[in-house]
Amino acid sequence: MFKDSPILLKATQPDLELCEKIRWFRQQPGCNWADRQDALGTLPELKISRHGVKLMQGPESISFHPNMALIRAINILRGAADRFLTATQLSSGDILIDATLGFGSDALIAALAVGEGGRVLGLEKSPILAALIKDGLQHITQGRSKANTEHKKKAWEALAEAASRIAVYWADHSEFLRSMGSKSVDVVYFDPMFRSTLRQSDSIQPLHKWSEHSPLARETVLEACRTARKRVVLKERKNSGEFERLGFKILSGGRYSSIDYGVILV
Ligand SMILES: C[S@@+](CC[C@H](N)C(=O)[O-])C[C@H]1O[C@@H](n2cnc3c(N)ncnc32)[C@H](O)[C@@H]1O
User: Fold this and answer.
1) Do both 106 and 159 map to the same domain?
2) Pocket of ligand 1 from Cβ distances under 6 Å
3) Tens of pLDDT along 119-132?
4) In the chain, how many domains are there?
5) CATH code of residue 198
6) Whose CA is nearest to atom 5 of ligand 1?
7) CB atoms within 10 A of CB 63
8) pLDDT range class, residue 220, cuts 50, 70, 90
9) Ligand 1: nearest atom to the Cα of 212
10) Residue 237 is part of which domain span?
11) How close is the Cα of 40 to the center of ligand 1, in Å?
């Protein structure tokens, strides 16, 4: 796992704007930047160019892209249901803690649902992921020109606006929740890396190398229950023992899906 590994910061033909971006990444908390490649040339690299920011390790690379959120936003704007929103029951003006930010797709959908008066606090334990997603959310409008249909354009606009309501923190969710006041947010949401390898082929798979895999602690769920005014939600694979171990009631729905949502009403 490369979560805390040193990373080389590289820029292609840096102009003033890219130099500013390099400086910005260097200032992000927790990131471990290497000064030069190691003897074997095996260090991961963060490549910054006019085309975007890529985190690379050998032939594999990841970058921020609101793809999944975009498809979901198109459907939501058309009036379709979204299982995450059904589970979280977010409404206008709510505050949600996304305790496992990852690529930020769920956080974007939450920010869309809570509207102008609401907020999303996104927590990510991997420093490089937190920095990558924070940068991606700040520059989400840059990809908008690629939207080639009216539906996509509308959804992209809505997500760009929603992104401004997400605050990203490099943080361990247990520590962060302990620091929060009782009943200070509406909903706390967990989508931890699954205990099985079931998701090897899905959109989360590229996160594996860079992310935190430790199981969700019971004490953390208790802290979430103390912090939330309305509910605590867990996403897990179907038939996962995690729901029972952590005290969540599984919601019905998603008969053909490989995942379920569990809820604790507080
Ligand atoms: C399955 S991904 C979440 C995907 C996310 N829901 C999305 O829509 O993209 C889980 C993420 O939670 C992070 N994580 C795991 N344990 C954590 C902790 N204790 N504190 C903060 N983040 C954590 C992992 O590093 C990983 O990036």
Assistant:
1) yes
2) 100, 102-106, 123-126, 129, 172-174, 191-193, 204, 207, 211-212
3) 999 999 999 999 99
4) 2
5) 3.40.50.150
6) 102
7) 17
8) very high
9) 25
10) 67-265
11) 30
